[in-house]
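Table S2 (text version). Query chain:
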Amino acid sequence: MQRFLAFLICLGLAFPASAQNADAPIQQVMQTHADLLAKASRKTIRVAIDALIDSGLPAAQEVLERWQNKEMWLDEETGLFVFAEEIDRDTIRIFDVGDGNDLGEVPDDGFKQLKPNSGVRGLIAAGLVKFQLIDPDATVRFTALEAISRDPDETHLPALRDVMEGETDPALSDQMTRLERLLTIEFGADDNEKIDAISYFAGDLGVDARAALNPLVATRIEVGEAVPVGAEVIRVVTPGDEALPKTEAFELLVRADLAPPLIPANEVREALIRNIDGDTVAGVQVASLDTDSARNAAFATLVEQGLAEPAATTEEIDTALGAYQFYEVFIGAPPGIAIAAQAVLSDIETSVALNQTADLALDAISLASIYFLAAIGLAITFGVMGVINMAHGEFIMMGAYTGYVVQLFVPDHTLSILLAIPLAFMVTFAAGVAMERLVIRWLYHRPLETLLATFGVSIALQQLAKNIFGTQARPLTAPGWLDGSMVINDIVSISYIRIAIFILALIFLAIFLIVMNRTRLGLEVRAVTQNPRMAASMGINPDRINMLTFGFGSGIAGIAGVAIGLYAKVTSEMGSDYIVQSFMTVVVGGVGNIWGTLLGAAMVGTMQKGIEWLNPSNTLAAQTYMILFIILFIQFRPRGIIALKGRAAEA
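Corresponding structure-token output:
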């Protein structure tokens, strides 16, 4: 009875396998190449994989994935392929490869698990990549290209070439072409196609291109009795040249067993110590070994006695170097490929240099716009009133803190910045008017007293800011749409915040020109600037104009503080970081002239960036050199680039 039940159970377990769909299209494709699939090898399996891919059947991708994961089995009785999951040591659950139907649990006897080796799995992976590269979803295709670029394999090259022509998205098509060229450089079948792929990257700025080409031009200096005849030799190298110091050349001889190794001085000393016999070494009194020549002579005696290894003398080194030829050869690639890569890299270096110059120019323009914003208010007060306002940096600081306070109450960063700009102007305008009424008005025509008084106000405002906000830096967060940078290529980029500051500087340049040239206030300011007594005789109140001008300049400094605070730390000392550059900008450009201030900002910004580029490790030295240059410039042009006539010129 028990045997009968066991027979029924086995029959029931075996029954599902008989329900396999032998007519499924994917099964038929697999049956066509059944022998290759059952005994897969890297040399022969590509035909079967290509047949699955070219079938266009939706199930082909799942077959490859299951096969790669060792989940495909062969029913040895029927010769059909199935998917299977191991239940326990002796039982598996099988699924139809055509529709994925669960065919039930069966003993694993009579089923053979297909276990592709690493080489076959690599070909399967390439086939799967091809499925991703022809996926209707462009995002999937992009992801596949990114995956290939991160971990390229020689099997990816034919997969890319098969799908390139059918790509409809221009951006993805360009990316595929670029990736195919990179893979050709690494995995190409012959030198000619590699050289053709290398030429594709002439002038290219991509880091990936340089990473692919640099290993191809790797060289090594070798030594021999004669220079070998052949294209592999790049040049003959003379020991003692910059490319091959004599010590390195001799080390090459030692490594090639063409000369004995040099004995360092410490080893000479140790050899002498080891062979001390009483108060002598090799018959020489120890007390007399107080010079290099005496120690070398004693060491030579030890060598003659076989008590020490011989060391090469300078004459012997020169003789040994002269007896052999040193030459440089390519080791990263055959000469033809290496020469082609070297030519393209030279072209790339030229493009890199030009783009680095463009990037440096963008940085200089960006810094100049910041200095212009910081100095424009100082140009107004200094130019019109002749007041040396050392507290101008603190008005910048007040504007930045105003932006910070606004963001505490308005969490929307875009709205908070839009509110902070006019509010910072009003706050610092009021502070400037108060300072002019309480301090400056009593010190006109007394520049030294004005400098000392405003310096005192500067210290007081810094301490007040510390008492209110503390010494910790406060955040002034830019709107999300200002995050990141505008990337032109792999070298040239500029942050959106700096672009916004540049645009803001242009806006305030336009506002200033409109106010000064199109309004009554501007007319009166210009009149007071040119001749205050004549302006007063015409009914203009110079005292009122001075007050409004000082307030207007301070208000612009507050707006500059909001802009600068978006990318710089907001602290009580932040104004001191810009006061020196602001004064330099105004003095170099021409006191009181807006166009001079603009040119001065451009000159100071460009100069600072240029010096920092020449000496990137020391920004303090860069500022010192810049100040020295400004001092020399003023010696030749004391009134600045654009000199102003009137009271400012007489100050």
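Notes on Table S2: DSSP finds 27 helices and 13 strands in the chain. The chain has four domains: 13-120, 134-217, 219-262+312-331, 355-575.
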